[in-house]
Structure formats: structure tokens, C-alpha cells
């Protein structure tokens, strides 16, 4: 009987050691993959300086989620308990860039795969998506045309704004669209807002001077396109 207990104890210890080693491997792998994810985030980030705390958040979230998945395992009761516990957490900080949210889910997905023991899938997922994100960044996929500018023109109220500049715009602009009409100066004038794209070889000054000849030399402004870095 004592030999049986010794064998059971040995088997339990062996199982525990294997579980600990597997859990440790999942944590380390999720950490390494999150480093890859944050490296991709850093080199593809355009909008000014990124936050170091956000980088750390992605890494921490990835590791924490992997541990949560290890703890849950196949235990449904534990899963519901954790859902209830984490439901009280509220994140107050708003994301300035929607892509930041995607990177958080990226790190969490890698952590989930590691926690569930799908190590090969986790590595393939992290590496493949990282490469795809870098390709999108390298080719600048989805970039808005930076030649498009905003034109604001003030005209007297006695001018019909619908077609007052059509002939002039056809001469100098490749494309234009009226976005907004509003009254100004106590209703004595209109302010028209357009999006415009200049023809090749045409400067802003040429367009502004031409408009001033038609709007009684009132205010004309051209707003340059905002650029991200």
C-alpha cells in the first residue's frame, strides 16, 4: 500500500512539474512574441512620439492573458468567475489612434494562443501578421491623397455661391467639391468651404489672386493637408 502511495505521489509531482514547465514556457513565449509585436508597432507608428507606457501595456496584457488562459484551462466555473471579476475593470484612457486598439488585441491573441498551448500557431500568427502590417506600412496602403487642400472663400451675400467660381475652378483646379456654406459678418456675407486639388503647375497664389478678383477682394484662405509622421 505504501508503495502505491509513493507511486501516486511521484506521478502527481511529475505532473505538477510538467504543468509548471509548460506554463513557464507559455509565459516566456508570450513575452517574446509581444516584444515582436511592440517592435512592429514602434517602426510602423506615424503619429508623433509613441507612448512607452503603451508599449509596456501590450507586453503586460499579452503575458497576463496567457496566464489567465492557463488558469482557466477546461474549467468552466473558473472561466465564468474570471469574467465576473474582470467585468468591474474600466479603462478610462481613450485611444488617439484606432490602430493602437488593434495592437492590443494582437498582443492578447498571441497571449491566448500561448496560454492554450498552441505554441506553433502563436508563432505563425505573430510572425505572419507582423510581416503583413509592415508590408502595409512600407507600401503606405490606404494613404489619402496629400494634394487635396481645403479652400475657404468669403463672398458678398448678393453673389450666387452655387456656381460663382465654376469657370475659374475649371481653369485652375483638377478637382473641387463644395463642403460647407455658412453666413458670416452678421449675415452680410457667405463663407464657402471647398476641398480642392490644383492642376499641375498651378500655385496657391495664382488661385487666390484669381478668386480675389471675383469676391470683391474679401478673405481667401487655403489650408494645407495635415501630414502624419
TrEMBL record:
Keywords: Membrane, Transmembrane, Transmembrane helix. It holds the Pfam family DUF4956. The keyword Membrane applies. InterPro entries: DUF4956. The chain crosses the membrane at residues 20-41, 53-83, 103-136. This is DUF4956 domain-containing protein. It comes from Halalkalibacter wakoensis JCM 9140. The lineage of its organism: Bacteria, Bacillati, Bacillota, Bacilli, Bacillales.
Amino acid at each position: 500500500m505504501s508503495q502505491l502511495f509513493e507511486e501516486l505521489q511521484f506521478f502527481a509531482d511529475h505532473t505538477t512539474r510538467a504543468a509548471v514547465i509548460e506554463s513557464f514556457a507559455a509565459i516566456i513565449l508570450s513575452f517574446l512574441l509581444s516584444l515582436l509585436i511592440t517592435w512592429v508597432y514602434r517602426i510602423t507608428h506615424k503619429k508623433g512620439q509613441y507612448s512607452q507606457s503603451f508599449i509596456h501595456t501590450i507586453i503586460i496584457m499579452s503575458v497576463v492573458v496567457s496566464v489567465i488562459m492557463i488558469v482557466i484551462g477546461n474549467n468552466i466555473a473558473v472561466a465564468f468567475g474570471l469574467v465576473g471579476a474582470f467585468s468591474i475593470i474600466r479603462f478610462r484612457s481613450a485611444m488617439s489612434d484606432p490602430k493602437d486598439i488593434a495592437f492590443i488585441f494582437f498582443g492578447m491573441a498571441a497571449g491566448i494562443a500561448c496560454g492554450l498551448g498552441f505554441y506553433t500557431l502563436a508563432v505563425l500568427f505573430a510572425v505572419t501578421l507582423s510581416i503583413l502590417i509592415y508590408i502595409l506600412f512600407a507600401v503606405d496602403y490606404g494613404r489619402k491623397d496629400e494634394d487635396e487642400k481645403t479652400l475657404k472663400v468669403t463672398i458678398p451675400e448678393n453673389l450666387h455661391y452655387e456656381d460663382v467660381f465654376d469657370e475659374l475652378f475649371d481653369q485652375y483646379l483638377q478637382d473641387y467639391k463644395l463642403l460647407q456654406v455658412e453666413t458670416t459678418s452678421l449675415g452680410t456675407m457667405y463663407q464657402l468651404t471647398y476641398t480642392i486639388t490644383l492642376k499641375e503647375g498651378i500655385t496657391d497664389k495664382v488661385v487666390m489672386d484669381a478668386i480675389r478678383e471675383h469676391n470683391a477682394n474679401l478673405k481667401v484662405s487655403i489650408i494645407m493637408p495635415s501630414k502624419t509622421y
